[in-house]
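User: For a reading group we're discussing how well predicted structures match intuition. Take Antibiotic biosynthesis monooxygenase. Before you show the prediction, I'll give you the sequence so everyone sees exactly what went in.
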Amino acid sequence: MSTSTAPTSTSTPRRPAPPNTHQMAIVIWLSVFPTLTIINLAFGPWLDLLHPVLRTLVLATVAVPIVIYGLVPRLLRLRARLLTRLLNRKATR
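Assistant: Thanks. Here is the predicted 3D structure of Antibiotic biosynthesis monooxygenase, as structure tokens, for the group to look at:
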């Protein structure tokens, strides 16, 4: 006699699928645009003194770690939290 222990929707919360390419593009844009805007506003006068290639190097060196290690993971966690809440709400209806 075999017993099945299939998980039910009430015992196991549903998890959202990983973001697709378009969702990642939105997350990256939401991270990059404000970061570059803030850096340009904060350091604009100093950056204007630099050659355009050096200015781009400085911007990329500062912005990429902020975006990749700071903002994108937080936005992805927020996305997962919101979608999990939505999926679990739909499962209980």
